[in-house]
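User: Can you predict the 3D structure for this chain?
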Amino acid sequence: MSKTNLTKWLFALMLALLLVLAACSGDDGDSADPADEPSNGETEPGDDEPADEPEDGLYSIDDFPTDKTNEGEAIDGGTLNFGLVSDTVFEGTLNWNFYSGDPDSQVLSWFDESLLDMDGNFTYTNDGAATYETEPYETEEYPNGVTFTFKIRDNVNWHDGEPVKAEDWAFSFEVIGHPDYTGVRYGPDFSGIIGMDEYNAGEADSISGIEIVDEKTLKITYKESQPSLLTGGVWPYAMPKHLFKDIPVAEMAESDLVRKNPIGMGAFKVKSITPGESVVFEKFEDYWQGEPKLDEVVLKVVSPATVVQALETGEVDMVDSFPVDQFVDNANMSNVEWLGVTDLAYSYTGFKLGHWDAEAGKVVMDPDKKMADVNLRRAMWYAVDNNAVGEQFYNGLRWNATTLIIPPFADYHDPTIETPTYDPDEANRILDEAGYKDVDGDGLRENKDGEELVINFASMSGGDVAEPLAQYYMQAWKNVGLNVQLIDGRLLEFNAFYDRVGQNGEDDPNIDVYQGAWGTGSDVNPYGLYGPDQLFNFPRYESEKNSELLKAGNSLEAFDIEYRKQIYKEWQQLMVDEIPVFPTLYRAVLNPVNNRVLNYSIAYDSPYGLHDLAVTQEEPFKHED
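Assistant: Here is the predicted structure, written as C-alpha cells:
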C-alpha cells in the first residue's frame, strides 16, 4: 500500500475526531464561497501538462488540458489498447436499447453510435449520420405538437454491409415501446410520441406518430414540443431490423445478437468477445466518415488495483476514467499525457423511501420506512464533511456537491441555494428535537419509539478508496449517535449493488441508505432519475410538487430559458428541503493517454471521432523513472 493510500485509511478512521478539533479551533468546516470552489471550466487545446504538485496538495480541473498533444507522424494502421477500469466484469448487454450500466456503454461506444451529433452545449446538430428538421404539429387534441423529419445519409451502413434505414430507426422505438420490452429505456421520451401509449398498452399494432417516408427518411411526431427533445430526448440509436425482426422482443436482450455477435454502424466492428473481460474490434472500412486510421482496438477490463501498472508498461494506451484518488502518486508518469474534464455526473447518498410497483409502473412511497423522517435524513447530511472528503481522498479532484443539477449545466445549476454542510452540532440538535434519543446510554440513538435503530448501508466496491470512504461516512454518522452498518458486512460489487437498489425493479427491502453515483447524460432534465414513473428513481420518492416541477421544466413554456431556470431553481430547492437523496461530490474525469496516441480529445465539443485515432509507433511508450 502506498504512503498516500495508507494516509487515506488513517483518515477514514480519524477524520471525525480531527474535524471536531478543527471546529474547536474556529474552523466550522462549511463550504467555501462558490467563487473559491474548483472551477468547472475546460482548458483550451494546447495548454501545458498539469503543473507540479501544488503547495496545498489540491488540484483543480483547470490544471488539465482536454486535447491530447499531437507529437510525431501517424503510422499506417496499428493497434490501440483501451482499459475499462472496473473491479468487476462488464455485463455484456451490448445494444443501446437494452444496456443499463456504464461498463457496457463503454464497450458499445467503440462499435455503435448515435445517428445524431451533439455540440458542446449538448444540443443536436445536423453534423451526424442523420440530419433533421422540425415543424409545428397542431390539432385540437395536440395544439403544441412537433414533427421531426430525419434523413439518414446514404453512406451510413451496418457492419454487415446493409444500409442503415429509416425502418431500423423506427424499429428501435417499436422495440422499446413494446409491451414485452425487458429493458429500462421506456419513459416520457417515448410515451410523448403520438400513438405510443396505445402501442405500449397492446391496443395498437403500430405507432401512429412514426412514419417511414422512404428508405432513408423518418418522421416522428410528439404530443408536445419540449426543450429536452433537442438535448437527448429524441432516441438517436437504430437497430438492424433485418437481423432482429424474427426474435421475440422478450428474448432480444439475451440473444446472441446482443450478447455474442453484436453489430453496429460505428468506426470499429466487433471481431471477438471474451465475455465480461475483453473485446477485440477491427476497423470498419466502409464507415460513413471515412476509413479509420487504426487497424484494431483491444478493450480489456483493468482492475483499479493494477491500472497504474497497465499504463506504465503500455499494456493499455488509455482508460475510460482513471481513479482520481491514485493521481497524486502517479502524476509524473512519463509515458502519458494527463487530460481532464468536469464529469457529467455526481455522487450521492440515497434513502429508501418506498418500493417499485412493477404492475403500475411507478414508485410507491411507504410512510413506515426506516428513513421516512426527513429530519433523520437532514441530520445525516449535516453529519458528513464532503469538502474534507474531496480534499483528503481526491486531492481536490472531487469537491463538495450542493444540488442535483451539476455545474456543467451552467444555465440551470444554482450555486446560491443554501444546503446542509458539515455541522455535527446541528445534526445532533435535529436528531434530539426529532426524538432520536440515546435511551440506554451506549452512545447510539434509538428510534422515536425507543427501539434499537440500525441503519443498513449499501456501498460499492472499487478502487483503493472505496472501503475507507465507506468507513468514513459510517464513522461520521456514528459520531452523531447513528448506528450505520454495511449491508451484509461488506461492499457490493457493481452489478450486485445496482440489482439490489432496484435497477430491475426488485428493491432489497433490507437496504435503508445507499451510496451511488449518476451520470446525467447530456440533458439537464432530471425526470429520468426522479420522475414518479421512472425505474431509476431508486429512492422511490414522489410528491405532487416534484411531479409538477419536473413536468414544467420540460414543457413548451420551458423553451423560455428564464422560465426554465426558475423552475429548476425551485426543483433544486425542493430536493434540498425533502432530501430523498443528497449530492456528495462533483467530480473530475482524468484520462492518461499514451504519448504515441494522436487525434484524441475528451472535450464535450471534441473535434475528433474514433475514426481519427492514430498512433505514432507500433508499441506503446513505457514509463521511465
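Residues 226 and 555 are 5 Å apart (CA to CA). The chain is about 25% helix and 20% strand.
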